[in-house]
Amino acid sequence: MHSTLVRAQNVFGFFTTIIFVVSALIASSVLFIPQSPSASINLRNVQVVRGRAHYYSTQKSEYAHIKFDLDADLSSLFNWNTKQVFVYVSAKWASPSRSSNNTTMNEAVIWDVILPSSSFSSVTKPWARLGLGKQKGKKPHPKQKVKPKEKIGVLNLRNQKPKYQITDPSGTLAEKGDVTLAVAYNVQPWVGALVWGGSGNDGVVLDAGRKSSSSRRWWSRRWEGLKGGRSEVFSFPAIKGKKVDATAAAAKKA
């Protein structure tokens, strides 16, 4: 006869195996759901200022303040296994290397946002689904227009301010060229691996931010890469703090 401890271990092992198998099925089921995200980002204005980029900075340096317009449709990334999607905008530019004559590509995030799924809000606030915890207020007037519910994963931003200021390792940013803005995302599922994607990728990759190879797996063919999501090339203005709008930057580039 088995002891109570042995029986408990067998039951625990059996249920652990079931949970593992169910989790694997849940994670693999989303591979059959096609994804086709798209985004469009345009520079609104850029300004280079000399000062302390952060309150904890000990030295003054040149930092850039970039505003942009963003239109993105990431609704296809949301499915029944999506917990939230992390979206971020980064600035990329080249600067000369200190150790050699070659140039180094720099990348810094200027803005980000977390887009939770509808199921995530139901789990974090279960009383919302039951209609509990609602604040009592005045009923809307019959003639008052009710705003339509926004679609999950759709962004329409105009003249968006950056969350983070960017600096260069050399300490100077003024009049540096070949700058672009790029949109990228990270899908965080309830069960399974993290999924990365962004502008410049042919497809979506798992647990890596690198470009997929030419011989992509069958699931990456159903998961299309982000269409668009990259701005036109522009240059940082002089340190005088003069704002340069997108049309002027494009004309200067031409």
Describe this structure in words.
The chain contains 5 helices and 11 strands, in the order αββββααβββββαββα. By secondary structure, it is α+β, with helices and mostly antiparallel strands. Strands 1, 2, 5, 6, 10 and 11 form a 6-stranded mixed beta sheet that branches.
In a few lines, what is going on in this structure?
The chain is α+β, with helices and mostly antiparallel strands and 254 residues long.
**How would you spell out the order of helices and strands?**
HEEEEHHEEEEEHEEH
Number of strands: 11
Helix share of residues? 10-25%
List the total number of helices.
Answer: 5
Shape: elongated
Major sheet attributes: 6 strands, mixed
Residue share in β-strands: 25-35%
**C-alpha-based Rg, rounded:** 24 Å
Provide the low-confidence segments as ranges.
122-133, 208-216
Mean of residue pLDDT values: 77
Helix/strand class: alpha+beta
What is the CA-CA span between the terminal residues? 86 Å
Task: Offer a few descriptive terms.
single chain, about 250 residues, alpha+beta, 6-stranded mixed beta sheet, 5-stranded antiparallel beta sheet, 11 strands
Task: Set down the secondary structure blueprint.
Layout: H1 4-29, E1 38-51, E2 61-73, E3 82-96, E4 103-116, H2 118-124, H3 126-130, E5 154-160, E6 166-167, E7 180-189, E8 195-198, E9 205-206, H4 218-222, E10 227-228, E11 244-245, H5 246-253
